[in-house]
């Protein structure tokens, strides 16, 4: 029989086992990494380019108008809620609890009853939604701005009219003062008229 060096053999086997374990571990890690990477790649895959939707968004006036209307609605609502938040009169309202609407037993319930014909004729009041309220507020603000603009234009017209009158008056005065006869001497009639006007205005 051949002699075996059991000590060295066992050590070699141990090393082999450790290497195999390490390799197996590395392989599993690599597989897991590849698997995860593949999933991410699948998620990150680009969608095919849709030329029709692209052209619609870029060139369609209808699409742009719809987008603009949507943004306008959002802006109006945002401004409306902001105004409500900043309005000091809103703090006085207290919401009722579900028990508060109940009638006390001491009160005369059913004493005054409305005629059934009148009840039928009554039209239920429709509550305005937030968009309608915002729209009304926007229209009100628009009307106020138009009114202010008209007033400004009116004031501007009046001012221009006064300036024109003043310039005309000044021109007439200059003509009267600058009149000369054939010899180059000043004509006194115009000057005398101006003096007369001045005296009459001062009285």
TrEMBL record:
Residues 17-53, 96-105 have a biased composition (Basic and acidic residues). Residues 1-53, 83-117, 142-161, 170-189 are annotated as: Disordered. Coiled coil: none annotated. This is Thyroid transcription factor 1-associated protein 26 homolog. It comes from Galleria mellonella (Greater wax moth). InterPro entries: Fyv7/TAP26. PANTHER family: THYROID TRANSCRIPTION FACTOR 1-ASSOCIATED PROTEIN 26. The lineage of its organism: Eukaryota, Metazoa, Ecdysozoa, Arthropoda, Hexapoda. It holds the Pfam family rRNA_processing.
